[in-house]
């Protein structure tokens, strides 16, 4: 590959890593940006024949699950609707299991059985939140909308992509006349949505709002990190969920970044230990009064610390004969970046959830989302609210 191809890969992959970070703050814009780039990146790469696309499916699914994970973690921060959160929790982990099985077996039918319903359900909820109070959504509406998205939208789409293995661009090129009925259907759907919003939907609760709902004042500020983190236990259900979640994501990424000698169970176990060690260090810093006023600073410092932890862990595994060889340096840097970023996002947003639980018990805010940790207590390892 030449310089041009390398630059294109860096720009596209960089965008796919950075755009999801908009989701917690501008949910609809962030997710739609990810969707558009996800749909366009293969076409972009195809314009440069020197770029090898043999591993595209694994690359694409790994980055898909990355931005879906950021969207899922943002629900800790932004969603106070109990039914919607519970439905999204199930849909996300259902797809995550499907992605993991696909990466381990390369059986495309698994992506049909485990459709990506979470993505469109998240988008549906956030589109409703633009004009209406999110607490309006009932469990019946949440389940009904998820079922509609699953059956009517996602199953046909997953069949088209993974069973029939059809490409939309090629299909339109072969059958250009299909553009006309597609446009008609699109206009009809938009027209019906507009009619329903203006004639059937309840009156809007607030002005048009693309930004995520504002956090209560009690859940903002860097001091929240110091005051809440330092007092909590390291080992709890939140840590277990965080460690397993990140381990699965790393295993998925490892299938195309470090396929040689790849042993998924060993990778998962190493990541779980690594996340626990990183959490212990992070909490130790909190107990010493360390306050992170900028996410970027925390990311850089914790990446440096985690690099040292990774080097020690890898050395110990080599001495014990648990690992053969070393992870390529570039791949190791990427994994440290990925794991550190996800730890920080999980900790910060789960802290907001835990704070809402405390406010709910104090009667200061509407009922909060029951978090996946299941215990209603602030998670150990939660960073400053973001």
Q: Summarize this, please?
A:
This protein has 386 residues and is an all-alpha fold. The protein contains 14 helices and no strands.
Give the helices and strands, then pairings.
Elements (H helix, E strand, L loop, with lengths): L2 H16 L8 H20 L9 H23 L3 H24 L3 H5 L3 H13 L9 H25 L4 H7 L4 H21 L23 H7 L7 H21 L6 H24 L7 H25 L9 H33 L25
Helix pairs in contact: 1-2, 2-3, 2-6, 3-4, 3-11, 3-14, 4-6, 4-7, 4-11, 6-7, 11-12, 11-14, 12-13, 13-14
Order of helices and strands: HHHHHHHHHHHHHH
How many DSSP E strands? 0
The helix count comes to 14
The assembly state of the depicted protein chains is: single chain
Globally, the shape reads: globular
What summary fits the major beta sheet? none
Number of domains: 2
- Terminal-residue CA separation: 40 Å
The helix content, as a percent range, equals: 55-70%
Mean pLDDT comes to 82
By secondary-structure content and strand pairing, the structural class works out as: mainly alpha
Low-confidence blocks of residues: 366-385
**How much of the sequence is in beta strands?**
under 5%
What is the C-alpha radius of gyration, as a whole number of Å?
A: 22 Å
């Amino acid at each position: 590959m030449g310089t041009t191809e390398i630059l294109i890969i860096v720009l596209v992959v960089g965008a796919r890593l950075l755009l999801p970070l908009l989701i917690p703050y501008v949910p609809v814009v962030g997710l739609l940006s990810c969707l558009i780039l996800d749909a366009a990146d293969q076409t972009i790469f195809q314009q440069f024949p020197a770029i090898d696309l043999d591993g595209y499916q694994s690359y694409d699914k790994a980055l898909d699950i990355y931005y879906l994970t950021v969207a899922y973690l943002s629900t800790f921060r932004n969603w106070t609707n109990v039914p919607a959160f519970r439905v999204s929790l199930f849909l996300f982990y259902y797809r995550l299991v499907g992605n993991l099985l696909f990466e381990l077996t390369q059986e495309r039918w698994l992506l049909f059985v485990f459709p990506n319903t979470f993505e469109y359900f998240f988008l549906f909820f956030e589109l409703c939140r633009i004009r209406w109070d999110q607490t309006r959504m009932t469990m019946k509406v949440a389940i009904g909308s998820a079922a509609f998205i699953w059956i009517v939208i996602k199953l046909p789409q997953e069949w088209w992509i993974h069973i029939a293995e059809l490409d939309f661009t090629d299909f339109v090129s072969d059958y250009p006349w299909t553009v006309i009925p597609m446009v008609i259907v699109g206009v009809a759907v938009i027209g019906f949505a507009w009619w329903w919003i203006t004639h059937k939907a309840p009156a809007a609760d607030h002005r048009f709002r693309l930004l995520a709902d504002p956090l209560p004042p009690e859940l903002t500020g860097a001091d929240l990190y110091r005051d809440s983190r330092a007092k909590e236990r390291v080992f709890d259900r939140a840590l277990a969920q965080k460690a397993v979640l990140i381990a699965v994501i790393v295993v998925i990424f490892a299938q195309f970044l470090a396929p040689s000698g790849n042993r998924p169970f060993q990778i998962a176990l190493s990541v779980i230990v690594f996340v626990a060690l990183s959490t212990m260090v992070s909490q130790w810093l909190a107990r010493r009064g360390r306050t992170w006023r900028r996410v970027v600073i925390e990311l850089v410092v914790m990446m440096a610390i985690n690099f040292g932890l990774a080097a020690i862990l890898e050395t110990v595994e080599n001495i014990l004969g648990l690992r053969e060889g070393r992870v390529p340096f570039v791949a190791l840097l990427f994994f440290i970046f990925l794991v550190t970023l996800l730890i920080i996002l999980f900790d910060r947003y789960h802290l907001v959830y835990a704070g809402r639980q405390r406010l709910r018990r104090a009667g200061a805010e509407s009922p909060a989302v029951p978090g996946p940790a299941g215990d209603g207590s602030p998670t150990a390892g939660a960073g400053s609210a973001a």
